[in-house]
Amino acid sequence: MIINIEKINKYIFSYYLMRKKIFISTKTNITFLLILISLLSFDIFNFLNLGNQKKIINENKKAIVVLTGGSRRLEEGFHLLEREMGSALFISGVNPIVTKKDLKKILNINTSEKKNILFDCCVYYEKKSKNTQSNSIETNKWLAKNKYNEIFLVTSSSHMPRSIYEFKKNAPKIIIYPWNIAEKEKTTFNNLKKLIIEYLKFNIIRLQYFFKTNNNYEY
User: Fold this and answer.
1) What are the Cα distances from residue 42, in Å, to 4, 7, 36, 193, 203?
2) Nearest CA to 174 among 208, 129, 138?
3) pTM score above 0.90
4) Alpha carbon of 50 to those of 45, 58, 160: distances in Å?
């Protein structure tokens, strides 16, 4: 039996090259995956951090802006007004069928003359907004008209990152102090589900603005 050494060497060399290519390919894929995980983790961390920070500024030269759509937002916004954290409360996105009387009932202020006076003098609202983008646009109109450039933005923790992003795009001159409302779902799964949905919405909005030619609305 004749052994072809040259042919064997050729096979060994081919096998070595194949193994090397597989190793390089695997290493490249793992590196890419690690980079992707790192970027995603950093983005999620920023998302969660933005939705959980509070800044307390002891001045009342600001407006308090409440975005409707979640529990305890109106009550917290009015409570800030009572504490003189802002000189006016603006509620964005009130349901068209809701009246001033209904808002007072929600805030449970009919039994207090002091609260009624505060509501009548310093609470404003609009009913045009249908989503977070229109919230930021309509709010910016009111802020410009009333000469406010700083706000306490009141909304739920998970909704805050998307809200801030919309305000930065549609009301870029406004300084925002986030005031988050903690969400208490019945289960951890529901909390996680809400966060994931908001994170996906947040990224969809970012992509939409990325492909827009003109992102800002000036008033």
Assistant:
1) 57, 52, 10, 19, 14
2) 138
3) no
4) 8, 21, 7
d(CA 6, CA 4): 5
Within this chain, do residues 149 and 86 fall inside the same structural domain, yes or no? Answer: yes
The set of residues, in sequence order, having a beta carbon less than 8 Å from that of 183 and lying 6+ positions away, is 70, 156, 157, 158, 191, 194
116 and 165 share a domain? yes
Q: How many domains does the chain have?
A: 2
Which residue segment(s) compose the domain that 8 sits in?
A: 1-50
CA–CA separation, 172 vs 143, rounded Å? 12
Q: Residue 215: what are its φ and ψ, rounded to 5°?
A: -90, -25
Angle between helices 5-50 and 160-170 (to 10 degrees): 80
Q: Is residue 73 part of a domain?
A: yes
Q: Are 134 and 105 in contact (CB under 8 A)?
A: no
- 49-96 tens-digit pLDDT: 665 655 555 555 799 999 998 889 999 999 999 999 999 999 999 999
Q: Are residues 101 and 167 in the same domain?
A: yes
Tokens of 58: 């002891």
Does 202 share its domain with 167?
yes
